[in-house]
Amino acid sequence: MLRAAGVGLGDEVVVPAFGNVEVAEAVTRAGALPAFADVDPVTYCLDPDAVHTAITPRTAAVVAVHRFGRPADIGRLYELGQRHGLLVLEQGESEAPYGEVAQRRERAAYLDARLRGVRTPDGGDGHTYQQYVVRVPGNGRPDRDAFARALRGRGVDCRVPVKTPLHRLPEFRRFVSLPQTELAADETLALPVDASLTKRDMQRTVSACNALGGLLQPAF
């Protein structure tokens, strides 16, 4: 789509650095340069204000990525695109059947009501909970990683959604300030809310998280 729109050598395309390496790779394959903008700390999608700041005379397009079951603020991004004459593209997530989404929402509501010591996700804008992403606040990555290891040791299949932001990878390294992206990479953890999980599984997740009190000191 970028090539078809004439985006190529000498152009910049604004993309998020919080995951989705395939988006940045697609920009590179089109001959353009990925320009990373910060994310909204609630939705983990591109922050329109950060996109506005990232626009330069070389900017040709913006790629909005919907994350974890929450949509990007596509209305404001399209407004920016119209104002600056930019192509705005979306990368969506695969849609699950209604029944599966309803079950995920039910499990998310169960966790919302019972988890302590972690920040639960905001459920606005019709969240479908492709992933149930919490924040383990504290001093950054050591706390979150120690928390994740302890959960796995208690039988909870959790995962770190984005281990390294794209602007820190060797092939895309950029010296840009993306504080929300880096904080999200340090603090976020995806807990299981699959439709196949039983009530006992959900109880195990809650018990394990709450027993840890939200934070662990890093092991030395």
Automatic annotation (TrEMBL):
<dbReference type="Pfam" id="PF01041">
    <property type="entry name" value="DegT_DnrJ_EryC1"/>
</dbReference>
<keyword id="KW-0663">Pyridoxal phosphate</keyword>
<keyword id="KW-0808">Transferase</keyword>
<dbReference type="InterPro" id="IPR000653">
    <property type="entry name" value="DegT/StrS_aminotransferase"/>
</dbReference>
<protein>
    <submittedName>
        <fullName>DegT/DnrJ/EryC1/StrS family aminotransferase</fullName>
    </submittedName>
</protein>
<dbReference type="GO" id="GO:0008483">
    <property type="term" value="F:transaminase activity"/>
</dbReference>
<dbReference type="InterPro" id="IPR015422">
    <property type="entry name" value="PyrdxlP-dep_Trfase_small"/>
</dbReference>
<dbReference type="InterPro" id="IPR015424">
    <property type="entry name" value="PyrdxlP-dep_Trfase"/>
</dbReference>
<keyword id="KW-0032">Aminotransferase</keyword>
<comment type="similarity">
    <text>Belongs to the DegT/DnrJ/EryC1 family.</text>
</comment>
<dbReference type="InterPro" id="IPR015421">
    <property type="entry name" value="PyrdxlP-dep_Trfase_major"/>
</dbReference>
